[in-house]
Write a structure and sequence with these properties.
This protein has 263 residues and is an alpha+beta fold. Helices cover 51% and strands 9% of the residues. Bound molecules: zinc ion. This is Peptidase M15.
Amino acid sequence: MVNCNNNSSGYERKRTLKQRSRKRKNHMILRLISVAAVIGLLWYCINGLNLKEVSPEPILSVGTGNSNVSSASIEKNNNDETSWCLILVNRWNAIPEDYDIDLTELSNGQAVDTRIYPALQNMFDAARADGVYPVVASGYRTAEKQQSLMEEKIATYQAEGYTVSQAKAEAETWVAIPGTSEHQLGIAVDINADGVKSNGSEVYKWLKQNGYRFGFILRYPPSKTEITGVSNEPWHYRYVGIEAATEMNDQNLCLEEYLRERD
Ligand SMILES: [Zn+2]
């Protein structure tokens, strides 16, 4: 029995020693794993940073509001054939200072960017063929013209009893702040009825249904006021090209949304 006990205690001691050395081994393995993990983490961080540094994506941050999206879009489309007609100008995105424009004068004295003239003519021909008679009430505008329109609108609201700041705020929802009007680009037109053969609602209805086929979009739909920053203007049409206009019409997107989706 004693022997047996002795034997058994000797066996126990051996087991304890074995366990200790196994524990030590395990401890070493754990330490090695931790060191490997730290090295791996460091390697990952360094490589991650390197990837970010060589990323080809342009990082743009200009101005406020929607400008990040739009600047990126303009940048991205710079080499694109259609970039000129997808330029975004709104209250958050002023016209570039070096913006160049070549005008074509219309028969009633208004003018538009030469590049949109054929599409505008085609659209008007198609409308007349359908018995609808539109006229271009306003095409290209200079910055001075835009400024005087703004002043007139503010004065109108002040005459109605608004304070100066109220009148200014109200006017700015109807008239674009000079430097931010699409009319200064020459690729937007206010279209009204001739007032004899057609009335306004006939013309607006026809344009809304058919404008996109000629590359023109209703620029400020009533449902998109918060995105465009402009109240409903059923007469204001903007040229974006047939492809973009069709997509925007099919998906019910305003220009801001369309450009954001393209990013
Ligand atoms: Zn307009």
